[in-house]
C-alpha cells in the first residue's frame, strides 16, 4: 500500500520513483524507539527486563542518526542515477551524429 502511494507521488512530481520507494522502505524499518514497534522488541524487553524509557533513550538518537545517513545516501544515489542517465543520453546523441 505504501509503495503504491510513494510511486504515485513520484509520478505526480514527474520524478523517479526509486528514491521515494527506498525512503519508504528505510523509514518503515526504523522501529527502534518503542518496544511495541516490532515483535522482537517485545521479546527483548521481557528477557532483558528493559523499560519503555530504555527503548526511547536508545532508539530516538539511533533513529535521528539513521534518518541523516539514509537521507544523505538517497541524495547521493539520486545524483549518481541522474549523472548516469545524462551520460547515457549524451553518449547516444554522439553515436547518432557519427
UniProtKB/TrEMBL annotation:
UniProt keyword Transmembrane helix present: yes
GO cellular component: plasma membrane
Localisation per UniProt entry: Membrane
Taxonomic superkingdom: Bacteria
Keywords: Membrane, Transmembrane, Transmembrane helix
The keyword Membrane is annotated on this UniProt entry: yes
Membrane topology: Multi-pass membrane protein
Primary location group: membrane
Stretches that traverse the bilayer: 20-38, 58-85
One GO term of the biological process aspect: transmembrane transport
PANTHER family cross-referenced by the UniProt entry: BASIC AMINO ACID ANTIPORTER YFCC-RELATED
UniProt-recorded name of the protein: SLC13 family permease
Amino acid at each position: 500500500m505504501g509503495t503504491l502511494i510513494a510511486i504515485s507521488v513520484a509520478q505526480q512530481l514527474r520524478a523517479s520513483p526509486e528514491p521515494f520507494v527506498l525512503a519508504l522502505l528505510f523509514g518503515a524499518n526504523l522501529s527502534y524507539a518503542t518496544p511495541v514497534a516490532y515483535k522482537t522488541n517485545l521479546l527483548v524487553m521481557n528477557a532483558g527486563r528493559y523499560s519503555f524509557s530504555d527503548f526511547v533513550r536508545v532508539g530516538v538518537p539511533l533513529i535521528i542518526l539513521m534518518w541523516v545517513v539514509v537521507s544523505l545516501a538517497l541524495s547521493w544515489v539520486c545524483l549518481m542515477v541522474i549523472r548516469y542517465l545524462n551520460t547515457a543520453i549524451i553518449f547516444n546523441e554522439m553515436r547518432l551524429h557519427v
